[in-house]
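Tutorial handout. Part one gives the primary structure; part two gives the three-dimensional structure as tokens.
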Amino acid sequence: MTNEKSLHRGRRAKIIATLGPASRDPETIAALYEAGADVFRLNFSHGTHADHAASVAAIRALEKTTGGPITILMDLQGPKLRVGTFQGGKVVIQTGASFRLDLNAELGSAARVCLPHPEIFAALKPGASLLVDDGHLRLRVKSCGKDFAETEVIIGGTISDRKGVNVPDVTLPIPALTEKDKADLQFGLSQGVDWVGLSFVQRPEDVAEVRAAVAGRAGIVAKLEKPAALDHLDAIVDLADAVMVARGDLGVEMPMEQVPVLQKRIVRACRKRGKPVIVATQMLESMIKSPMPTRAEASDVATAVYDGVDAVMLSAETAAGLFPVRAVTTMHRIACEVESDEHYLDLMRVGHGETEHSSPAAISAAAGQIAHTLQAAAIVTFTSSGSTTLRAAQERPDVPILCITPSLHAGRRLGLVWGVHALVGDFIHSVDDIGDVAVKAALQIGIGKKGQALVITAGMPFGKVGSTNMVRVVWIGGETQAA
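Part two.
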């Protein structure tokens, strides 16, 4: 083993930094990592394949210099619904006026515009809402057919070419993956991304469709930003490998005052099932242009950390902002301050449900309790798939979780998970090795000192997925004990 001190940040919640024009050069990527970024997000709504390939190459080169796995999340664009174009590029529509949407490709006016999405007309019903330009304009359907919708303008204003359309009241008959998404997905998988973010999930079948396409080559993050998804929340969480609370479109399609409540609900559902959960969008929005966040933004990040989320995400703040590295540094400082609060663990565990009735879950819960009782330096998990480590993280223990795995694939994925520090290598040749390997690993990444305990969990035989069935205690500088 080599010295891995950079792996241990002294922080449990992970930070996702989105790369873009302000941050995709190798020097800035390295600076973001040093500032505290644990996961790099590639947003396929922007940039070319060449841009993203260069980012992946820079991250993997950085990985070789740090000695530890670094996680890459690709975020698919998903279906983008937009109006057509207008005479002069924009028009003003008045509140209370009638406005028609249809499939006619002619330039739009203050009376009508093309909406080139027959799938929307197929799903609309009278009374349904249509939100244009992130909800700045709101229309209500009065009547509709297979190629038109007559609407009343509820909130008017200026509407310009190709503005986005949200349809919150109906489940649209659209595939989970557009043709662009399919091409982007195959490209991202060929580059070795670790996670795939699926945008605009509406139903469990969307996750199943993408899982079939991914075929185990990456984890799947279901992005919850459609009201329809919340009707199937438990099923979607069960099918996904992780979940993102995507508050941007969710805040457009749902009343804004409901978003904080929905965030809590989604986080609880994920934590109950041991699925990693990310909170995203506008967390430090003002830092796109300002070197300091607002107090409200700092509180927003802190609230997510107190709730025990696995990761908090920066979007435009690092992709296009003036202060990308400073934004990561700020988020790191906020998370560290929250986690140093003496009440942090108690507040976070309020959302922890009953332990699952299974042997692996019981072993992981016992390891957390033993670590607490002994004031251990860390829980050390030996895993090939990552499942042992995920179970340990689900318990949200007092101490860091050191994952030792022979799988680089598993080690990279676990970079998204609360409290986990992964070390990749083929260190174990027999069960007798685990105590020595655990001690050496902990000391070399700066966790623990002589006389402290390490609590070890593993599955026997090694390599069998989901077989967590052993817990041991080893003392740094002392003996290994079965528990």
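Part three, for discussion. DSSP finds 17 helices and 22 strands in the chain. The longest strand covers residues 137-145.
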